[in-house]
Design a protein that fits this description.
2 strands; 2 domains; DnaJ-related_N; J_dom_sf; 10 helices; globular; about 200 residues; mainly alpha; single chain; Helix Hairpins; two-stranded antiparallel sheet
């Protein structure tokens, strides 16, 4: 599978389906809700693979594949004067603001997700290193106001808050939603994503 291209891993018409799902949710979709919708639409695809959301490497590969296709779609939509905001907690299609800059070609995240070699060369031992270190090294300034607001909503918090309150709320919500306690895997992953964003904003929690 490591030698396959994205198109070989995905069903025919995947980009069109992706755009259809985003247009049907003008308020935006979180990554895990979008994955669930794709799994329902394509029950024989990687997105519906049993246990994929529990295995760190398979989860990373799903995440990377989805964000690779989202960034490709964003490039296509930019030519139609539309903007695709791509954040783990909210993926949203918007009309293009004529006064706003176009796609940032030097955006490091865009460059990362469009580099298919990253998908091929990232192995299980790399995934934990990425989870432990990558986002936590990002400066507070890399958290957008939208990312912060979405993360607080997921964590059921409002500003003002602090690292201690975030940690307490995260632990309480994970106790409720963890799959081992009969909770929802997608909700737990959403909490983990929100926690990573809030760690970037508030510092070590």
């Amino acid at each position: 599978m490591d030698d396959l291209q994205p198109e070989e891993l995905l069903p025919n018409g995947f980009s069109e389906t992706l755009l259809e799902l985003l247009r049907a949710s003008p308020q935006g979709l979180g990554e895990y809700l979008l994955i669930r919708q794709l799994a329902e639409r394509y029950p024989d695809s990687l997105f519906a693979e049993p246990g994929a959301l529990q295995d760190p490497l398979r989860l990373f590969q799903l995440h990377f594949l989805l964000f690779h296709m989202l960034h490709r779609l964003a490039d296509q939509l930019a030519e139609l004067d539309q903007t695709l905001n791509i954040h783990a907690l909210n993926i949203r299609l918007l009309p293009r603001d004529a006064s706003a800059p176009g796609i940032a070609l030097e955006d490091p995240l865009r460059r990362y997700y469009l580099d298919w070699q990253q998908w091929r060369e990232t192995h299980a031992e790399d995934v934990q290193r990425l989870l432990d270190g990558f986002w936590r090294r990002q400066p507070k300034s890399m958290v957008t106001a939208d990312e912060l607001q979405q993360a607080l909503i997921v964590m059921e918090l409002q500003e003002p808050t602090d690292a201690r309150a975030v940690k307490q709320r995260y632990r309480a919500l994970v106790r409720v939603h963890h799959p081992d306690r009969g909770g929802n895997t997608a909700r737990t992953q959403e909490l983990n994503q929100a926690m990573l964003i809030l760690q970037r904003y508030y510092g070590k929690i």
